[in-house]
Amino acid sequence: MGKFAFIIHPIELEDVYRKFKFMRRWPKKLVENLVKMIPPMKISEITGIKSRHGETSGWFVSCPLNSNQMVTLPEDYVLEKIIKSGKKAEELGADVIGLGAMTSVVGDAGITVAQNLKAAVTTGNSYTVATALQGAREAARLMGVDMDQAEILIVGATGSIGSAAARILARDARYMTLLARSQRKLEDLADRIMMENGLAVRVTSNVKRAVPAADIIITVTGSAEAVFDISDLKPGAVVCDVARPRDVSKKVAEQRDDILVIEGGVVQVPGDDVEFNFNFGFPPKTSYACMAETMILAMENRFESFSLGRDIRVPQIDEINRMAEKHGFKLAGFRSFEKAVTPEEIQAIKERARGKRKN
How many domains is the chain built from? Predict the structure, then answer.
């Protein structure tokens, strides 16, 4: 039975305060400096993951830097911290190590980390993309958007993730627009989709023209700036943000309560007695897709670096999907800005959108 570990880190200082309540009264800068001095450690043991075809167990291991530190501290320093966390995971017995949150983004997206560890390393991005697309389809259904008639927009379509997402969605879509800066790359991708799926897609570099018409937006640019003006979004639109760092600012959801922004799928983990022994904000027996990819590889005894770097390919996504289905991993809900989104919240967004369309 293969074992896994998943590296996590505090998203913000509030996560540190939950663990060390007494630090809440201390100056922010002091807390951040102290956090840097904490060594990687085992946070919890994960047990009970089991299907008819295999089982696994593992650990959450901390990398004690928050998200802001991950992107502002020197890259070499951050990578060394992540590698040390990986070595702690190896000491525990992990055969496969998953990189969580910003640890999967720093530097070359896992390649350097993998080169410095004996265990296999994965970012989990292949299954993240797979479940994000599943989630977009399901979210559209709950929002009353008919995929057969929906205008689908892929923002950042010529990147590796964007092109993979476009090619997968083109299997079922009828109306799709690809948006990116390079006209030549857009036309090349459009030709490829025509050859693979027979779908004639539109291409554009004009954000202002494409966004207002879109019912479903998959955005994967990873831009440091706002990708589109929130006032251009159609009421009732579903926006699926697959990018790291995020394309969609939290202000979008705060200022537009008539659109649904999701970051990806929440995954149901197989097993009657699944225990994470750590509360990361999800219901029991559910996890992030990137966590689930690490578990799936361990259950399959696939001790290989599956998703590394920024080049995510369609065959990879299809393969992890097949392995997930084999073991009973499946979509269990949605998340938005690191929190679960309930069916009741989606229904409320749908009603508000309906009201705005009437007005």
Answer: 2
